[in-house]
Amino acid sequence: MATDSVPWRSPTFNVVVASSLMGVMGVSLISPTLPAVQTALSLTDPEVSLLLTAFSLPGILLAPLIGILADRYGRRAVLVPCLLAYGITGGSIVFVREFGLVLALRVVQGSAASGLVTLAVTLIGDTFSGPRRNRLMGVNGAAISVGTASYPLIGGALAELSWTAPFALYLLGVPVGLLAIRALPPSDQGEARGLGYFWAVLDAVPTRRTAVVYGTYVLVFVVLYGAVLTALPLILARSYGLSAFKVGLVLTASSVMTAVVSANSGRLAARFTGDRLVSGGFVALGVGLLGVWAARSPAQVGVAILAFGAGMGMVLPSLDTITSSLAGREFRAGVTSFRTSSIRIGQTVGPPLFTAVAVVTGYGPLVLVAGLCTLAVGVVATRQTG
C-alpha cells in the first residue's frame, strides 16, 4: 500500500472520520434552522444564538480535561462515552418544547462533543506519520466539509417539517460509539496525570508558536460562527425571504468548496508551507465576507461564499497538521485538546458577539468590518511568511 494512500479499510480511520462527522454536526445541522426556531419559540436574535453558544461553551474548559483523560486512560476509554452521551442528549431534544431545557441538553451534548474532533485528530497523529499523516488530515478535513455541506441541507429540509426534527439525527452518535468499542484497540494507560500535566504540555511545545496557532483557531471560528453560521442565515431569511432549506443551500456552497480544497491539502502542502497556506486562507476568508457584503441577491451571496469556503479549506487542515506536530505522542491528546478549547472559544464568542453588535450597527456594516479585518490579517501574515 502506498505510504500516502487513504486506508479506507482501517477500522481506526473509519472511526476517526465518523467521530469528526458527529462533532461538526453539532452546529452545522442547526444553523439554517435558527430562523425557524426563533419563530416557533418567539426568541430574539441573541436568544436564538444561544443554541450555538450553549453547545460550544463547555468545551472551553472540558477539552483539556478530555485530553488529560485520553493521555491517561487511552483514546477508546474516552471517545466511546463521548459518542454515546452526544447521541443520547442531542436526540432527546426532539421531545422538548421548553427553550431552557433545550439549552440544558445542548450544554450536555456540547460537553460530550468536546472530545470528538479532538480525539479524531489525535488518533490520526498516533496512527500515521509523515506525508500520510498530512494527507489524512486533509481527507478528514474534507470529510468534515462534506458533512458541513450536507448538514445544512438536511437540517433545513427537516426544519420545514418541525424545528425539532433535525435533532433526531444526533442519535447516530450511539451506533458510532458502539462501532468505536469494536474498532479501536484496547486503551493503553499512561502515567497518572494531575494539574502538573498542563505545565508538562506547555514545556513540551514551542510556547510562542503554539500561542499563535491557538490564537488563529480562535479568530477563524469567531468569524465562521459569528458571520457565516449565525448572521448569514438571519440575513438571508430577512433580506431575501429564504426558507430554512434555501438558507441551507447557500451554506452548503461554502462547505462544498471547503471540502474540495481540503481534499487537495496534501498537494497544496507539497508546494507551500503550512504558514503560507494559513495566511492565504485568511485572504480568501476576507474576500468572501466582502463579497457577501456587496452582494445584492442570494445567487451573488452563494458565489461570494465560495471564496470563504476555499479559505477554510486552506486554513483548517494546515492548522491541524501544525498542531499535531507540536508535541510527541505522550502529550498529543493534551496539545490537541487545547486546540479544541481555542476553537470552542471562537464558537462561543462569535454568535453572541455578532448578534449583539448587529443590534446597534445592523448586519451589513458588521460583515463589512469583519471582511476588512480578516483580509488585513491575511495580507500582513502573507508578507511575513513570504
What does the model show?
The protein is mainly α and about 375 residues long. It has a single domain, classed as MFS general substrate transporter like domains (Growth Hormone, Chain: A, Up-down Bundle). Helices cover about 80% and strands about 0% of the residues. It contains 17 helices and no strands. Helix 2 packs across helix 3. The longest helix is centred in the middle third of the chain and has 33 residues.
Number of strands: 0
Assign the CATH architecture.
Answer: Up-down Bundle
SSE-based structural type: mainly alpha
> What gyration radius follows from the Cα positions, in whole Å?
20 Å
Count of helical stretches: 17
The first-level CATH class is given as Mainly Alpha
Please give the domain count. Answer: 1
Query: Taking all residues together, what is the mean pLDDT?
Result: 85
Can you give me a brief rundown of this structure?
The chain has helices spanning 11-28, 34-41, 45-56, 58-73, 75-92, 99-113, 116-127, 130-159, 173-183, 196-204, 207-239, 244-263, 265-271, 274-294, 298-324, 329-361, 363-385. By secondary structure, it is mainly α.
Secondary-structure blueprint of this entry?
Elements: H1 11-28, H2 34-41, H3 45-56, H4 58-73, H5 75-92, H6 99-113, H7 116-127, H8 130-159, H9 173-183, H10 196-204, H11 207-239, H12 244-263, H13 265-271, H14 274-294, H15 298-324, H16 329-361, H17 363-385
